[in-house]
Design a protein that fits this description.
Rossmann fold; about 325 residues; single chain; alpha/beta; three-stranded parallel β-sheet
Length: about 325
């Protein structure tokens, strides 16, 4: 039997749960005996254990288990490195996340190097992450296993508004996730809305830190939403300010699924290589302004939605990607 090792606090994260549950589902469909475990206690040293993430992968090494395959998923140190560079570039570094990103980069780059050397196969969701971690290792050691698109049963038409509505969907319950949005909301938005009173920024997602932005001009805070359909039907475009440049952002996949055009910081699209016709990106304030003016065009919106949806159906397909992975590497 194969055991996917994920600690409970990690498994509670929706992004983790959806990957683990889909892997279990499609393994079961293909007659592979597999389950999730939250502890290494009582596991045999002859069991095939696949850890999820850096900490679980490192724990498996330290405990002396066979290091056959790990679901590293994201190159975490790459995300920290990109945030450090970005915060320096935009002058946003007098905060805890800047210092923590330096610590995180040093810590996780060391762990990742250990893991890459010890495991026979390392699974990540983005080729960008693989290229970063590979170094001098054999390219056949790495497997790119992309996330899938969760297609909703209902996609409502966009509600009409006199404002051009730019939505930001995130979690706002940690200082890290907050700062990944805060730099944009504090530095770009106040300056932008002074000369663009027809544009409104709508913030959604769980976490108390979101209320920090209720006083920012041009910002409407709605907090946690019961339905993604309700959120996406009441915005014209999704914006992702995340500068991490690693992994695959689920919020971008959600926007694609709800047929909403996407714009964002260049780092938000590192996992979407090949889909360049399906989004617009910016890397400074001037390019952000240009992107917003472009995205107001309805024909362009329709083209971006069509291109991203078509690309995602082919490339971010849970069944196709996971069954190929299981057939080639698991069975």
């Amino acid at each position: 039997m194969i055991k996917i090792y994920v600690k409970e606090y990690n498994y509670a994260n929706n992004g983790v749960t959806v990957i683990v549950n889909n892997l279990i589902k499609y393994c079961s469909d293909m007659d592979v005996d597999i389950c999730h475990t939250a502890s290494l206690k009582n596991l045999s040293y002859i069991d095939t254990i696949i850890p999820y993430g850096v900490k679980e992968s490192k724990e498996l090494i330290n405990a002396g288990y066979n290091t056959v395959c790990c679901l590293l998923v994201d190159a975490i140190s790459l995300g920290y490195l990109n945030k450090i560079k970005h915060y320096l570039r935009v002058g946003h570094f007098f905060h805890k996340d800047f210092l923590y990103s330096i610590y995180g980069y040093l810590r996780y780059s060391f762990y990742e190097k250990q893991i890459v050397k010890r495991y026979q196969k390392v699974v990540l969701v983005s080729q960008t992450d693989i290229d970063y971690l590979r170094g001098g290792e054999d390219k056949n050691k790495f497997i790119c296993l992309r996330n899938g698109l969760n297609i909703p049963q209902i996609v409502s038409k966009k509600a009409t508004s006199d404002m051009f509505r730019i939505g930001i969907l995130s979690v706002w319950d940690s200082f890290q996730s907050n700062e990944e949005n805060r730099w944009f909301l504090k530095k770009y938005v106040p300056k932008y809305v002074k000369n663009h009173p027809d544009v409104e920024f709508i913030l959604a997602g769980r976490g108390s830190r979101i209320h920090e932005y209720t006083s920012v001009p041009g910002v409407k805070v709605i907090g946690e939403v019961d339905s993604l359909d309700t959120f996406f039907s009441n915005i014209d475009v999704l914006l992702s300010p995340n500068p991490k440049g690693c992994g695959i952002l689920n919020r971008v996949l959600d926007a694609i699924a709800y047929k909403t055009p996407v714009i964002g910081h260049t780092g938000s699209f590192s996992g979407f290589k090949g889909m360049e016709k399906g989004f617009l990106s910016f890397d400074d304030y001037d390019s952000f302004c240009m992107v917003v003016e472009k995205i107001k065009n309805k024909d362009l919106q329709a083209s971006l939605v069509s291109e991203s949806y078509k690309f995602a159906l082919e490339n971010f397909n849970w069944e196709k990607n996971y069954k190929e992975f299981i057939d080639q590497y698991v069975k």
